[in-house]
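Hi everyone, sorry if this is the wrong subforum. Our group has a chain we'd like a structural model of before ordering constructs, and none of us has done structure prediction before. Sequence below.
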Amino acid sequence: MVILLLGGTTEGRTAARLLSAAGWPVLLSVATPYGAALAGEDFTGRVVVGRRDAAALAALIREQEVRLVVDATHPFATEARRHSKEAARLCGIPYLRYTRPIAPLPADPRIVACADFAAAAQEAVARGPVVFLTTGSKTLPFFLAAARAAGCRVVARVLPEREVIAACREAGLLPRDIVALQGPLSVELNVALFSAFGATVVVTKESGTVGGQDAKIEAALNLGIPVVVVRRPPEPPGTVFTVEELLRRVTEILGRGTNR
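Answer:
Right subforum, don't worry. Here is the predicted structure as tokens:
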């Protein structure tokens, strides 16, 4: 009775470890070799690597005789979420969404919440001229187009991965505008970075405390810098937000049989 747990997130790796410790056979699926390396730091079970669409995930589910899909992908990984839910449907097995809790935003007029990246880009460049972007390389097109039209500079903090840096350069960012550093970062380090690059606005995702949201906002507000926050996509009904609730729901779904 195998559980397929999708996600190289911090909470995904923790969930894999705790489910395994509770006696459930877990197959952890991560997108990249780096995600697999991180998983190996605290999870000793089986790990598969690679991005899969719904059909490929369904094939994996059948091959491994998976009985439950636990989707612990990033809150903004909507495509991965769609594929995992569809794969579970195709195979006729339960799907359970597990993700980090939503961290409430401070009540401060300098914080501007936006529904999507396009709206966030417009709000950010209105507070230029230096936009410090922490939303990942895949969101660069939204912000670079708006910044060029408004005559603003974009500084992007991105993962120090070869393909990510290449994507930044191909998008037109100069080396001086790329901060290759994996988060989450402390408040103090965020303050140092925002100050060093002369940021006049910081852009972040609503990625929760574990994603560094709180530290970035605190650092920016300490410097008197406005923050544009991209709201996270809505979660499906039945989503669980704690490992305790996850363990309880897994037991409810799969029972306490001797074939674990």
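For your construct planning: The chain has ten helices and eleven strands. The two ends are 5 Å apart (CA to CA).
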